[in-house]
Recover the amino acids of this structure.
């Protein structure tokens, strides 16, 4: 009997079952429906607060009322199934992408904010520094590949959510400029010294960085760059990329293939 009551209570919280399926919890107290409504509403408010915490700039953009409307619609379609509320908003960007009459920049801003949160919660690890390269002969370096820091990952955007986020952060009282489309803009996210960072990549750096994440050796990345850059410039260009990646803390370690 207790298990049935618990299952019905959970179903009621998730709008899957009417309150009348639950017997009175106690007699001589306020009516069952009123008491259940308290839990019903509190459950939603807690999850909405979680979304507001995970997507603060999206709240600023849309306003509390419309954001909460979207949040309740999201909850109805994607009930919380994880033991931790930290994962509740994982599908929110995808939900917004398919929500009627929403500009695609809204979903991308949500994805951008979720990515920032993922960086914060990523596992910790050391990163190599530039003097570490001196431990290897130049010929050894060419046959090596890089293992990225656990917090490093990248997303491809179409509507410049980085610019929207920056505007909402630094100029919250000014009108947001009309979003501009820039196809296949790659943004990399990472954490260094407990601080979250992000930046967009040039097409050439995107090519090199993607190869890095795919396990290419340093020499293979240079060969790949030769297809898009003059051969005489590749060595210098890749050297600049590599030193920037190390300086930013992208590289956890180097190892032989």
């Amino acid at each position: 009997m207790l298990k049935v009551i618990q299952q019905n209570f959970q179903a009621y919280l998730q709008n899957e079952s009417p309150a009348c399926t639950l017997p009175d919890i106690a007699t001589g107290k306020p009516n069952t429906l009123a008491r259940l409504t308290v839990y019903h509403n509190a459950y939603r408010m807690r999850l909405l607060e979680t979304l507001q915490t995970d997507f603060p700039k999206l709240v600023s953009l849309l306003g509390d009322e419309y954001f909460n409307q979207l949040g309740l619609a999201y909850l109805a379609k994607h009930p919380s199934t994880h033991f931790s509320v930290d994962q509740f908003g994982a599908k929110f960007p995808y939900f917004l992408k398919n929500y009627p009459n929403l500009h695609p920049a809204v979903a991308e801003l949500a994805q951008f904010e979720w990515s920032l949160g993922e960086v914060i919660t990523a596992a910790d690890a050391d990163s190599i520094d530039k003097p570490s390269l001196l431990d290897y002969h130049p010929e050894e370096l060419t046959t090596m590949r890089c293992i990225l820091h656990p917090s490093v990952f990248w997303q491809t955007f179409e509507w410049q959510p980085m610019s929207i986020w920056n505007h909402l952060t630094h100029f919250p009282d000014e009108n947001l400029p009309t979003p501009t489309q820039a196809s296949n803009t790659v943004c990399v996210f990472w954490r260094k010294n407990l601080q979250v960072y992000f930046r967009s990549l040039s097409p050439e750096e995107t090519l090199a960085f993607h190869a890095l994440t795919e396990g290419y050796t340093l020499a293979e990345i240079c060969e790949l760059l030769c297809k898009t850059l003059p051969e005489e410039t590749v060595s210098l260009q890749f050297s600049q990329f590599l030193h920037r990646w190390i300086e930013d803390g992208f590289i956890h370690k180097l190892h032989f293939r």
